[in-house]
Design brief:
638 residues, 18% strand, 21 helices, flat, six-stranded mixed sheet, alpha/beta
Length: 638
């Protein structure tokens, strides 16, 4: 046992959040903590970490338990750069190193057994703490979490909030905690970093508990799910998909048991009513006592709706909805993607994924006509009526009440009709008179979707539509979009959502390519893994091309002729040609080593990681020597 919550109660302002929660987490478990917003998931984390105390019950932890939690406001202490902030996770190793340096100085004059034995003990501790590979491990995790090597010297004070959160995640992954508490760990990560994190956690040898709205992430990283529901904790074995199946089976069983008990109660009450004053008075009293002692099965109430996003009937477009031919997108002189070719037919759903700044939103703005294409053509089909959902929710007027905001797309509808429609999006009673400015992010997201759906558009362009929705709301939206007759273009990092609605994928890759694939996200992901050599080759060839360009640029520079013999000149020219062929090859090898070091399973294998790091360092030194030799030879050649 690592920790246990035993009959824990916790409330705020008179509202009970946890009502006798009990569960235990054991070594090597991979746990997902799920539930609606406000169900108490983050409260559980605060209780475990000791930031808050239970009103009643106990939180029992193993002696010396090392917990790791990613704070919302990350403090990097005295760390000055991205690299030193990552290395700060290894305080224990740094303390050992510092004491070893002091002892080494002392050993210059003091050769006593006490000093020598202490130094030997520290060497053993240093080795057991993976002191020889910790720097390489830190660099591997930095690469995996999206920090390129050239950013390692950046001042942590200049990082954005999202970058600080990612760096905090790096430090947590390196902390070697007995239990990692991960609260929405994918929030600030692009798809590539999320996939890297998934692979890292698969090989992680210790325990973690994760809160996440990313159902695909939960599927790939958990083997047990704890659901927070109505103040209680219910445990399910398996990943998220297995949890959904088991939850439905458990719900059906509970419904049957409740109905059977209600039938028994009704029959018993009827017997008591008929016989309490008759010949069977004693039996009636006995049954009344039995009924009073009966442990009642709780009624299975309908799950709180995630919102009824049922899409209204839309006008049919022509068969060909959108075609892009040799499309180039970007701003001014900056090209983000080029030679884009894809087409959408009526009823298609295109999912768009990629890292920040790769061109996803620029593509959306281009096809909407908000910015001009740099080259190529965009063709819209006939009878197209476009509805746009912005992730920034920029189409909402803050001064309007909720019902007034919906009226903007329904000017002739009466209040009862609008209120009935808003109720499907969980705006009940007086909620419809709230000002938009007072709504939460999730409420604003639901209102924006309500406006879009009421407007009956036959082409929906959705920019991160699930960002502000909890899991039940996401499921309702997915169900509605599956029944939608129109055409969908959706930018999303929610891979579970894309699996449900997309039949075509467009992926903006880190190396500048844009991949087009017919199928949903999982099919695309499996295909990409099978062809991952393409990515490695393109990265390697890019590095080689850079080296080749550098060499060619140096050769073309003006120089004065030298007093070399014909034989000396021939030998120098031959050597320069050899170097120009060798540098790209070695840089390709260095790029491949960097790629291998960033793989999660390698990051967890300290010995292998240390070997790769040494090979990479030797290669870099060799490449630098070749550049120096080339510069010298080129200078002599003139």
């Amino acid at each position: 046992m690592l920790f246990r919550l035993q009959d824990v109660w916790k409330g705020y302002g008179g509202t009970e959040i946890l009502k006798g929660v009990s569960f235990q987490v054991n070594p090597n478990e991979k746990v997902g903590l799920v539930g609606r917003n406000g169900a108490g998931k983050t409260t559980v984390f605060r209780l475990i970490i000791g930031q808050e105390a239970a009103d009643d019950g106990e939180v029992i932890k193993m002696n010396g338990l090392k917990l790791g939690l990613l704070d919302q406001h990350v403090d990097f202490g005295e760390a000055e750069t991205v690299h030193t902030a990552a290395l700060s996770a290894f305080k224990e190793i740094h303390d050992i190193e510092a004491e070893m340096r002091l002892l080494e100085k002392q050993m210059e004059t003091d050769h006593s057994d006490a000093v020598l034995n202490r130094y030997a003990d520290l060497q053993t501790e240093f080795e057991h703490a993976d002191g020889f590979s910790y720097a390489a491990k830190a660099e591997a995790v930095l690469l995996g979490m999206g920090f390129a090597a050239e950013s390692w010297g950046d001042d942590v004070r200049t990082l954005s909030g999202g970058q600080k959160n990612r760096l905090g995640m790096v430090r947590l992954l390196l902390s070697n905690a007995d239990v990692m508490l991960l609260d929405e760990p994918t929030n600030h990560l692009d798809v590539n970093a999320v996939e890297w994190l998934e692979e890292f956690l698969k090989t992680y040898e210790k325990t973690y508990v994760v809160i996440s709205h990313d159902r695909y992430f939960l599927d790939r990283t958990t083997t047990r799910v704890i659901e927070m529901d109505r103040g209680q904790a219910v445990t399910y074995k398996g990943n998220y998909s297995k949890y959904l199946e088991e939850r439905e089976l458990r719900r059906e069983q509970q419904i049957r048991e409740y109905e059977n008990q209600q039938q028994l109660i009704n029959k018993t009450q009827e017997f008591i009513r008929k016989n309490l004053e008759g010949q069977k008075t004693k039996q009636a009293k006995s049954r009344r006592t039995l009924l009073a002692r009966m442990e009642r099965i709780e009624a299975v109430t309908s799950e709180k709706s995630g919102g009824n996003f049922g899409l209204r009937q839309v006008q049919r477009t022509g068969n060909n909805v959108l075609t892009a031919e040799d499309l180039t997108i970007g701003y001014g002189e900056k090209v983000l993607a080029s030679n884009l070719n894809f087409s959408l037919h009526r009823g298609d759903a295109l999912g768009i994924i990629g890292g920040n700044g790769t061109g996803k939103t620029t593509l959306i703005k281009t096809i909407l006509g908000n910015i001009r294409e740099l080259d190529g053509k965009i063709h819209w089909g006939t009878k197209v009526n476009i509805g746009y959902y912005s992730q920034n929710l920029e189409g909402l007027e803050p001064r309007n009440e909720v019902i007034q905001e919906l009226r903007r797309v329904a000017p002739t509808a009466d209040n009862n009709t609008l209120r009935g429609f808003l109720a499907k999006f969980l705006f009940m009673g007086e909620d419809v008179f709230k000002p938009v400015s007072a709504l939460s992010g999730g409420e604003k997201g639901r209102l924006a979707l309500a406006k879009l759906i009421y407007s009956q558009k036959n082409v929906l362009i959705l920019d991160e539509p699930t960002n502000h929705l909890d899991i039940p709301s996401r499921e309702s939206l997915e169900n509605a979009l599956e029944e939608y007759d129109g055409t969908i273009i959706a930018v999303s990092h929610d891979r579970f959502f894309l699996d449900k609605i997309a039949n075509q994928m467009l992926s903006f890759e880190p190396d500048g390519r844009v991949l087009d694939y017919d199928g949903n996200y999982t099919e695309f992901h499996d295909w990409k893994l099978a062809t991952d050599g393409i990515r490695v080759s393109s990265v390697a060839s890019g590095v080689g091309a850079k080296a080749e360009t550098r060499a060619a640029g140096s050769v073309s520079s003006d120089s004065q002729s030298s007093n070399l013999s014909k034989n000396q000149r021939t030998q120098l020219e031959k050597r320069i040609a050899e170097i120009e062929k060798l540098i790209p090859t070695l840089e390709s090898e260095a790029a491949e080593l960097t790629h291998q070091m960033s793989l999660p399973d390698i990051a967890a294998d300290f010995e292998r990681l240390n070997t790769l790091a040494a090979e990479h360092k030797a290669l870099e030194n060799r490449i630098q020597d070749l550049y120096n030799e080339w510069d010298k030879a080129a200078g002599e050649l003139g």
